[in-house]
Design a protein that fits this description.
- The chain is of the alpha+beta class.
- 34% of the residues lie in helices and 25% in strands.
- The strands form four sheets. Strands 9, 10, 11, 12, 13 and 14 form a six-stranded mixed β-sheet that branches. A three-stranded antiparallel β-sheet has the order 1-2-3.
- α6 runs antiparallel to α8.
- The chain is elongated and about 115 Å long.
Length: 270
C-alpha cells in the first residue's frame, strides 16, 4: 500500500483522499455549467446518444455541438435589444394615489381617505383690506391711513387678484373684528377691474352709490379704503373708480381723475 497527501494506492487501485475528491467534484461541476450539461448526464454516459461509454463523457462531436450552442446563446444575448423590454417607472403624479387606509371606529369597514397631491393643493396669498376704524371715527381723529385700518386676509391665489381684493372688501369685516365697520355696500358688485399705465380702473354696479350710507365722511372713508386696498399691489400707483362705466358722483364727491396713494397719504398727514 502506497500513501501520499492526495491519494492512497492499494492493490493497484488509487483511492482519493477527501480534499482531493472535493476538488475533483468542484471541477466536474464547473465543467457541467460551462458545457450546459447536467451533472446527472455527466455521471451517466449512457444518457448521451453516441457518447463514449469508456470515458463517461460525450464524444468530441457532441462537445463541439454543445460549445457551438453555448456561443450562439451568448451572441443572441449580446445582439438582443434588451432595453426595449425594460418598462418605464410609472409617473408618480399620474399613476400613484396616496391613500390612508384605516378602519372606521367600531367596524371592520375600511375608511379610505385620498390624500391630496401637493400639486393640486390650493395656494393662498395674503392681502390687505382697509375697513373703517370706529375708534378714529368716534373721536374725529385720523390714523396713519385716515379713517381706515388694514387687516390681513388669505385668499386663493389668482391672476385677477385686484378684483378678488375688491370682492373681499365688499364682504366687510369678520364677526370678530367688531371695532371695524364696512366701507362698501354688501349689495355692490364688481363689474370689472383692469390696470393701465399703473392706474387701477375699477367699475362697480350702481348699488355702490344707491345703497351707500352717503355723506361726505362716508364718501371719504370709501375712497380711502379703495385706494389703499388697490395700491398695495406693486403694479398700481393710483386708482380711478367708475359706476356702470360712468364717473363716481354721489353728490358730495366726484371721482373724475385717478387718486394716487402717495398724494392721499400726504393729504392725511397735513
Amino acid at each position: 500500500m502506497y500513501k501520499s497527501g492526495k491519494c492512497i494506492a492499494e492493490n493497484g487501485v488509487f483511492l482519493l483522499s477527501k480534499p482531493a475528491a472535493c476538488k475533483i467534484l468542484v471541477l466536474i461541476y464547473m465543467l457541467c455549467l460551462l458545457t450546459s450539461c447536467s451533472f446527472s448526464r455527466l455521471l451517466d454516459p449512457l444518457a448521451y446518444d453516441g457518447g463514449n461509454t469508456e470515458e463517461g463523457l460525450p464524444n468530441s462531436d457532441d462537445t463541439d455541438l454543445i460549445y457551438r450552442n453555448y456561443e450562439n446563446e451568448i451572441n443572441d444575448f449580446e445582439n438582443s435589444d434588451y432595453e426595449n423590454d425594460v418598462r418605464p417607472v410609472a409617473n408618480i403624479a399620474d399613476d400613484i394615489e396616496l391613500t390612508l387606509n384605516t378602519s372606521k371606529p367600531g367596524t371592520s369597514e375600511p375608511d379610505t381617505h385620498t390624500a391630496v397631491p401637493p400639486a393640486s393643493r390650493p395656494v393662498h396669498m395674503e392681502i390687505k383690506l382697509y375697513f373703517a376704524d370706529m375708534a378714529y371715527i368716534e373721536k374725529g381723529t385720523k390714523g396713519a391711513y385716515g379713517y381706515v385700518t388694514p387687516v390681513i386676509r388669505k385668499v386663493p391665489a389668482t391672476s385677477g387678484i385686484l378684483k378678488a381684493a375688491m370682492d373681499e372688501l365688499i364682504k366687510g369685516p369678520l364677526p370678530e373684528e367688531a371695532d371695524l365697520s364696512p366701507v362698501l355696500p354688501a349689495s355692490a358688485k364688481v363689474n370689472g377691474a383692469k390696470i393701465a399705465d399703473r392706474i387701477a380702473i375699477i367699475d362697480f354696479s350702481n348699488e355702490l352709490i344707491s345703497d351707500h350710507s352717503g355723506g361726505s365722511l362716508g364718501g371719504a372713508i370709501a375712497m380711502q379704503a379703495l385706494v389703499f386696498t388697490a395700491c398695495q399691489f406693486d403694479s398700481i400707483d393710483g386708482v380711478l373708480v367708475t359706476v356702470e362705466g360712468n364717473l363716481w358722483d354721489e353728490g358730495h364727491f366726484v371721482w373724475d381723475t385717478p387718486i394716487y396713494e402717495q398724494e392721499l397719504l400726504s393729504s392725511i398727514r397735513s
